[in-house]
Amino acid sequence: MDNRKEGRQTHPINNLKAMLAVPLMLLCSGLHAEVGISGAVGMGAAHIHPVRFGIQKKFDRQWRTDSAWPIGGYWEGSVYAMRSQKALLSRGPKQIQSTALAGVFRFERAEKMLPGWPYIELGIGLAWLSQKEIAGRRLGLHLQFEDRVGIGFRFGKDREFDIGYKAIHFSNAYLGPINHGINLHLLMLGYWF
Q1: Could you give the CA distance from residue 87 to residue 114 in angstroms, rounded to a whole number?
Q2: Whole-prediction pTM
Q3: What is the CATH number of the domain that holds 175?
Q4: Is beta strand 137-138 parallel, antiparallel or unpaired with respect to 35-44?
Q5: By residue range, what is the domain housing residue 21?
Q6: Which strand (E) or helix (H) includes residue 37?
Q7: Closest CA to 45 of 117, 111, 135
Q8: Which tens digits make up the pLDDT trace of 120-176?
Q9: Could you read off the pLDDT of 30-88 as tens digits, one per residue?
Q10: Residue 37 burial (CB count, 10 A)
Q11: Pairing state of beta strands 137-138 and 117-129?
């Protein structure tokens, strides 16, 4: 029986379990490297409220290591559950789930500043969204690019704690017929092992 024909949707937790498998398998393939976990909440276009969980694996090398702001980075697999509170007259889903894999370059201060080590980061990746529309925002394709910029601080004895702000943009880069995109603003807390 097709749940969509009867107006019922699969529970978001079931979708997230399936979508979490791919990023977990990709990132856990080299756990000898420094890894981290993160959670984030925020707001976005069309009153979208995202909840996001990520797993990070630090790059094996750094660039500009003699600089005050060396360049490092990490791979990140993430899952999103997004729900819109916007009351629209339009049809279409009010929630979607997503999984993403991104490469992120981070400029992190080499020397500690009060209260820790500040950073700026830029990243791009690929995402798969469970729906092509949310709250009237037509996304065109399930496959999207996930672009991001972020700022934050790492702190703790071994820089194990991470707090930051991330602006994330989903777009199909006009590879599809429609590209309304989604912009998200997230507050993130993370821990590095």
Answers
A1: 44
A2: 0.81
A3: 2.40.160.20
A4: unpaired
A5: 3-192
A6: strand 35-44
A7: 135
A8: 999 999 999 999 988 888 899 999 999 999 999 999 999 999 999 999 999 999 998
A9: 555 689 999 999 999 888 999 999 999 999 888 999 999 999 999 999 999 999 877 55
A10: 14
A11: unpaired
